[in-house]
TrEMBL record, chain A:
GO terms under cellular component: nucleus
Keywords for the protein's UniProt record, in alphabetical order: Nucleus, Transcription, Transcription regulation
The keyword Transcription regulation is annotated on this UniProt entry: yes
Domain BHLH residue range list: 316-366
Biased composition (Low complexity): 225-238
Organism taxonomic ancestry: Eukaryota, Viridiplantae, Streptophyta, Embryophyta, Tracheophyta
Positions with biased composition (Basic residues): 213-224
Compositional bias of kind Basic and acidic residues: 265-288, 511-520
Listed name of the protein: BHLH domain-containing protein
Organism per entry: Zingiber officinale
SMART domains, per the entry: HLH
Family that this chain belongs to: Belongs to the bHLH protein family.
From TrEMBL, chain B:
PANTHER family to which the protein is assigned, alphabetical: TRANSCRIPTION FACTOR IBH1 (PTHR33124:SF40), TRANSCRIPTION FACTOR IBH1-LIKE 1 (PTHR33124)
Protein name: IBH1-like N-terminal domain-containing protein
Tree of life domain: Eukaryota
Organism: Zingiber officinale (Ginger)
GO BP annotations listed: regulation of DNA-templated transcription
UniProt keyword Phosphoprotein, yes or no: no
Residue ranges of domain IBH1-like N-terminal in the record: 28-82
Length: 520, 153
């Protein structure tokens, strides 16, 4: 086509500084370059005709076979480009002219509507990759940065890209993305100026090349590389610097965009690898300015299930196995930290083995202490009478309301062996007196305890008549296991404990009468 | 007689799940102690009583720790199984999967120490060990206080 010749010259002149590894630029003869040149050649003055021409060029471009399509993940590339578009627009850098706004605005409407029409079912991956690369090679970003009218479109592109990748089939999504990207880039190309374009294109192509050259799972490393273009951006000529910066931000953004998709697949693999633990988000290097635009895009693709959501950190592999291992390692280290706080004297100890050793020693010492103290208690025991209230008051100065009642009754039962003849109030009072005699409480506590006991006595009085005594005894904690049983019921998922619940949790009514008889 | 103390300790004041309330443990333990003491009045030998008290202590600890903890369940089961309980009823015990990895002697030692630690994964083991250590420390402090107050009064 005549357009090719027309544009090829412009393209070559513009891309003198292209990186060699970008093989896409070997396809200079193809339309995409001319695509760009077309934009350059004809000033942007926003007509539909341009859009239509570009569309046709785009379609022919896509349909043309590609030879040296670079390897790599084209969907990643596409997403990256779209992300760049989105970020560029969101960054809000404005270099330029209002005419660009109008021009782009008119352009945008068409490509958005056109992609769905184009049916590239037959296009293979290579073509798409080629298309994307070639389009990416175009120094289109600089004008993008300037254009604010494009912001919504680019945002839509990125949203569309993210959503599409998550929902549509890969081929169709890639195709539509490719179309959109190509169309939008074509639009943008119109307002670009060559020097800025060349420098911007370098960055773009560098990032694109990185994406293509890398494998998918090494995508996080691209984040590190994204920093490289950003560092190189510092050397840019000052007049292009604002645009380059926003462009670099776009490149950073694009690194993030593949992540949701990777997360999806990785999180799905994590789910299979690890038996669905709690959700966990390892922090990603935050790119604050993209967060707002990214969050909306990142949310839809993530599966709303109980997967382990882990983000790959910078410089780490995103292999599903390594992700799961990393999650596990983090869990273990977190638990170890907990243990470190519990075990005294472990703050300065580092290393898992030494920590474990300390923990084991501590547990052993605690168990030995329990044994020793129980022996001591056994020897001390017959000499003292255990006034629970005394000891309780010595330990803490809070008397729980339910406690006194149940404290009293066991003592009653133990001493009187379930003698139901005595009125409970009297029974209650006897141990109370004995307790109070031995109490050396401060007056406040004494009063408090008295209040509690009086309250409890009243409730006891209400309940206790002879015919109701058995029922009361049933409700006692000693004879019945009601409260404990009701609270101690394990979860249904603990299937293996089914044998213990029946023993523990028999209802109080059938059991209590048996208990009474056994105790007497 | 020791069974009674265990039942007593099990019967709780609406056993709260977290074991942060020392008074709960204290109450249970004291009640159990009194029961042990009153049952048979010493049972003739202090070592016998000591064993009973030790088991009561562990039972209190496990009971107040709550059923949500694997170690508390395993501990209670171990305690209750002791008094001559053979295969009273054939239970469909789902044999707990034993995690392979006995190469690390530290891990093995920890599994032996923590009740119910033979079947858990490493992460779970560490978690249960932390909780177990916390409850154990609290129990030890409690018993120490009791002994101190008992020896002073």
């Amino acid at each position: 086509m005549e357009k090719e010749r027309f544009f090829g010259g412009g393209w070559k002149s513009a891309h003198a500084g292209l990186l060699p590894e970008v093989r896409a630029f070997a396809l200079d003869e193809h339309l995409p370059h001319s695509f760009v040149g077309f934009g350059w050649e004809q000033p942007v003055h926003g007509q539909e005709a341009h859009a239509q021409q570009l569309e046709s060029a785009l379609s022919s471009l896509v349909s043309s076979p590609s030879s040296n399509a670079p390897d790599g993940n084209d969907s990643v590339v596409i997403r990256e480009l779209i992300g760049r578009l989105g970020s560029i627009c969101n960054s809000g850098n404005v270099s330029p002219s209002s005419r660009c706004h109008s021009a782009h605005a008119s352009y945008y409407s068409t490509p958005l509507s056109s992609p769905p029409k184009l049916n590239l079912a037959g296009a293979d991956h290579q073509r798409q990759r080629m298309l994307v690369n070639q389009v990416a090679a175009a120094p289109l970003t600089a004008p993008f940065l300037a254009d604010q009218g494009f912001a919504e479109r680019a945002a839509r592109f990125s949203c569309f890209g993210a959503a599409e990748a998550g929902q549509l089939s890969r081929v169709s999504s890639r195709q539509s993305l490719a179309k959109e990207v190509a169309a939008s880039y074509a639009m943008m190309a119109g307002s670009s100026s060559s020097p800025e374009a060349s420098s911007a294109s370098e960055k773009l192509t560098a990032v694109v090349a990185e994406h293509n050259a890398r494998k998918r799972k090494a995508a996080p490393k691209g984040k590190g590389k994204a920093a490289a273009p950003s560092s190189s951006s510092a050397m840019d000529p000052p007049e292009a610097s604002p645009k380059i910066e926003s462009f670099i931000d776009a490149s950073k953004l694009c690194e993030l965009i593949p992540l949701p998709q990777e997360e999806n697949s990785d999180s799905k693999r994590c789910k299979s690898a690890e038996a669905g633990g709690a959700d966990k988000d390892a922090p990603v290097k935050p790119k604050t300015e993209q967060n707002s635009s990214d969050d909306g895009n990142a949310k839809p693709p993530e599966p709303p299930k109980d997967y382990i959501h882990v983000r790959a950190r910078r410089g780490q592999a995103t292999d599903s196995h390594s992700l799961a291992e990393r999650v596990r390692r983090e869990k273990i280290s977190e638990r170890m930290k907990l243990l470190q706080d519990l075990v005294p004297g472990c703050n300065k100890v580092t290393g898992k083995a030494v920590m474990l050793d300390e923990i084991i020693n501590y547990v052993q010492s605690l168990q030995r202490q329990v044994e020793f103290l129980s022996m001591k208690l056994a020897t001390l025991d017959p000499q003292l009478e255990f006034d629970t209230e005394t000891l309780l008051s010595k330990e803490m100065h809070q008397v729980h309301v339910p406690l006194p009642q149940q404290v009293l009754f066991p003592l009653d039962m133990a001493t009187s062996a379930f003698s139901l003849a005595q009125p409970p109030l009297k029974l209650a009072e006897n141990p109370l007196d004995s307790m109070f005699s031995s109490l050396q409480l401060p007056p406040i506590d004494h009063v408090m305890m008295m209040h509690h006991f009086r309250h409890k006595f009243k409730s006891v009085e209400n309940n206790l008549t002879d015919p109701k005594l058995a029922e009361l005894v049933c409700s006692l904690p000693i004879s019945g296991k009601t409260t404990f049983g009701m609270s101690f019921r394990p979860g249904s998922r603990r299937a293996r404990r089914h044998h213990s619940p029946p023993e523990l949790f028999e209802p109080s009514e059938p059991e209590a009468p048996k208990k009474i008889e056994s105790c007497v | 007689m020791y069974r009674r103390s265990f039942k007593d300790t099990r019967s709780s004041l609406g056993s709260p799940n977290p074991n942060f309330s020392k008074p709960m443990v204290a109450l249970r333990f004291l009640r159990a102690l009194s029961l042990v003491r009153r049952s048979g009045l010493g049972a003739c030998s202090p070592s016998y009583r000591a064993r009973g008290i030790r088991r009561a202590a562990y039972a209190c600890m496990a009971a107040s720790a709550g059923p949500r903890r694997a170690w508390s369940r395993a501990l209670l089961r171990k305690i209750r199984r002791r008094p001559g309980r053979g295969l009273r009823r054939p239970r469909a015990v789902i044999w707990r999967h034993r995690p392979v990895g006995g190469g690390d002697r530290l891990e093995v030692a920890l599994r032996r120490l923590v009740p119910g630690g033979g079947c858990m994964e490493y992460c779970r083991l560490l978690e249960e060990a932390a909780d177990y250590v916390k409850c154990l420390a609290m129990q030890v402090r409690l018993m120490q206080t009791i002994v101190d107050s008992a020896s002073h009064v």
